[in-house]
Amino acid sequence: MPSTSSQKRTQFSSCDACRRSRVACDASKRGYQPGKVNWAGSCSRCALRRRPCTFEWIKAAKRNPLNPYREAPSHSSSTETDPTISHESHGQAVFISTDEQSFDQAITQNSQGGTNANPYDQYDTDHITPLDESSAHLIEPLGLQAESVDILLTSWCDQIFLNGFETSFGLIAGRNGCPFVNNPTSEVCIPPTELFRKLDADMDDAPDRQNSNPGLEAQRQQQEKDFQIDQSLKHMIRSFTAYWLPLVSSRNHFTTSQIEEFTRESWRIARKDMLKVVNRISYRSALTLYLFAQTPIPVGISEDEELDGISGLVCIQTALLQIQRLRERQRSHQFHASEVSAWTDILASSSNLTFTEAYLDFESRAYWAAVVWDTSNSLTLNLRTSLTSGLNGACSEPAWRLVRTFLLGSCHTRTDHWRSSGFDISDDIASQIIAAAAISMLYIWKNITSLKEALREGVEEETVSFVWNAFIDASNIFKTSIRPLLNSLERRLHFLSQLSRLAWYEVNLQYNLGILILCNSLVLADRSDLLSQITELRRDAEHESFNNLKFGLDNTYTISRHSHELDMASPSRDNFPEDQIAVSLIALDPYPNRVIDSVLLMSKVISSEYRQGKMKHENYSYLSSILSKTLEELPRNAKTVQAAKENLKQSFHKIDEAAEA
Q: Which of 35, 213, 456, 579 has the most CB within a 10 Å radius?
């Protein structure tokens, strides 16, 4: 780390409002030049707020060159610089606001000191400096200006993302979650921002290893591109997590209008940025596009505005395309590593560039994550998969053959004694069980998508039977190898960490959702012959769906606006009630659309049974209340949630009218 006493260059490119908010200002990119008195333009932030874009602080600074920040008796010297785009803590990235100064300093340092030889040791320090958390904590929630409100809301977005999507995704890509890699020394949870940034760092570093002196202009261009990609990801993370801000509104005295305005503005900025992201091919760009596809349209966006821009469906397809193109580039490279996974043996070919074993490890994890995206997208949106073929894909393609081999081989062998005898369940063992369940669940999802495609395309009955038998085989693997472990884990859940409870809830929700979607597809296709073969499986999924939703409602997850590591480092730091919230597992679910699908499908189930006289009104009312409470926990400022609530309300109203008649 550079010395805090070193002289730092002052940046005269931020307007007054952006400087007060301590966020990046793009005025210079829109034509502003220091000292340009008659400039009548505006940075994008001021333009959105319809306020004057002024630079009065620059005049004052030139009159008094002494930096006022250095005069203040501060508890932290880092107030001389603006906070930056990322704060890393034990491998977990928390994205926050940034100023252009860190970017300019990075270029200067890079041109003087050269590039880092090992991007995994210091992959982000070329353009990132630590966040001054102690000074950020001084922001008070009451009596704030609009800019200060944005800062506080953004800090909550960071922590919600860290505890929600980062954790859920990180387990998929971590030590136990990827069937393509066997590396017991890797982390259990690898956050997506870290994973994709490391891959980009090594992709960018590969040409530099061939050219020992790339030149200052090439370095600057790469730094600028890297900065823009990070900015887009930062904006997208803010937009993705803004929907959970109502969870903190009551404790922090935010008004509904403040949160809704913040959510809409964040979404607009992110969607506008997507047009550039689709042309900046990188792993972080793919993650950015995926996040946008998972972000619902906020309440208050008109139908005309919805149509006036790129859609989430286009973004997810483009994200998968970018992953494919990056892998094609990787396939043209020659691998030199002492040991590689079975998956990399399938990919290897020849070229002039060299990738390390660490890169191959991360690349395999990123590809598995993309397969998860692709399969989930196909199941819920009735689309063909992009990365792996449908119909026979789950049985014939190398990726899925490896998954099946993993489930029947190393995974089954490693957990065999857990099924045959009693064992103590720790959080580490719980992580292994849940990761295996997630892999098995996705294998079932892939077979369901293949079956749906066969029914949708009207293929020959022989092909339908082939795919159906593949699904039955995948279901039997889950039933014999995974279900007993999940049942044992359920009995110990309340003695485990909140992360274990959240992960258990999510994997059960997704497994049961897959079975419900399958049954609904068979009903729509009028395939009662196939539906009759999974009567027990269908009944268990329906019952377990309600039990799981009830578990998600009754169990809470605590989020702090400050990281745990910061609290340990500064035990004397004051904590206020508004700095911490406890919400239900459903409220924090990073995939609310899956919860909505589960609720609407279960609504059809109980309505059908009630109309047929298989369920008493008392039971129907109780189960209906669980479904209604579930939707009430989801982000209320999302259009999809509002539409689902209205759909459920109308469904219950029709049932009540029929009962009265």
A: 579
DSSP letters spanning 353-378: -EE-HHHHHHHHHHHHHHHHHHHHHH
Gap between the Cα atoms of 559 and 163, Å rounded: 7
Backbone angles phi, psi at 463, to 5 degrees: -70, -40
CA separation for the pair 333, 353 (Å, rounded): 5
Query: What would the DSSP string read from start to end of 175-191?
Result: TTT-TT---TTS-S---
Give the span between the Cα atoms of 599 and 608, in whole angstroms: 14
pLDDT band at 484 (very low <50, low <70, confident <90, very high): very high
Query: Are 632 and 534 members of one domain?
Result: no
| Residue owning tokens 């809704």 | 260
Last residue of a domain, one of 536, 554, 572: 554
- Residue 121: is its pLDDT beyond 70? no
The per-residue pLDDT for range 572-601, each reduced to its tens digit, is 444 445 678 899 999 999 999 999 999 999
For residue 107, the model assigns a pLDDT of: 33
User: Which residue in 353, 326, 354 sits closest to 340, CA to CA?
Assistant: 354
Are 413 and 534 members of one domain? Answer: yes
Record the pTM.
0.75
Distances 334 to 180, 196, 235, 356, 559 between C-alpha atoms, Å: 19, 21, 35, 10, 44
Neighbours of 313 (CB within 10 A): 12
pLDDT in tens, 19-42: 876 777 888 877 787 766 566 778
CATH number of the domain where residue 40 is located: 4.10.240
Residue after which a domain boundary falls, among 73, 91, 114:
73
